[in-house]
């Protein structure tokens, strides 16, 4: 596993905001992926999605889990243009979110400047019996690429999750974008 080395945290933030602006309207997540997650956690109410760009994840969760209250984070300046979204750097904790969410989902771990710290932050946001769903595509991982600073194999992502105190209790592979996998995790 490799992480691109930025000169400063501010350079990382500037790059992520620039990439977000360049990809306005671009949706990564597949609706069928969120449907499979919803089927795995049919009683989830509080859902947090990290790195959502245009709020597709939140909209899909609301469709498949109408009882839910999805919330997304996006670092881009346009975050507030989208429903159920706040502007926030997902690498940083929000104390009020500790232990609050039934589901924490992201397909943006490759945008992390410090994947170990990011997973610790996300794990802290889970309720005791909540589940974290981390979608990752090894096929789209590029070394030394500042837009997506984390370069890893799927096996390395799984090890990262386990090293940070999560049990990988399942995987979703069918229909996941770019031959990827969604790791289903619970706190140890």
Written account of the structure:
- The chain is of the alpha/beta class.
- Helices cover 29% and strands 26% of the residues.
- The protein has 5 helices and 9 strands.
- It has a 7-stranded mixed beta sheet, sandwiched between helices. The chain has a two-stranded antiparallel sheet with strand order 1-7.
- A hairpin with an 8-residue loop joins strand 8 (166-172) and strand 9.
- Helix 2 crosses helix 3 (56-64).
- The chain is globular.
Question: What descriptive keywords fit this protein?
Answer:
alpha/beta; seven-stranded mixed beta sheet; 9 strands; 188 residues; two-stranded antiparallel ribbon
Radius of gyration: 15 Å
> Average pLDDT, to the nearest integer?
97
What share of the residues lie within helices? 25-40%
Return the structural class. alpha/beta
Largest sheet: 7 strands, mixed
What's the order of the H and E elements? EHHEHEEEHEEHEE
What is this structure, in a nutshell?
By secondary structure, the protein is of the alpha/beta class. The chain is 29% helix and 26% strand.
What is the topology?
Elements: E1 2-3, H1 9-22, H2 31-40, E2 46-50, H3 56-64, E3 69-74, E4 85-87, E5 101-106, H4 115-125, E6 126-136, E7 150-151, H5 154-163, E8 166-172, E9 181-187
Parallel strand pairs: 2-3, 2-5, 3-4, 5-6
Antiparallel strand pairs: 1-7, 6-9, 8-9
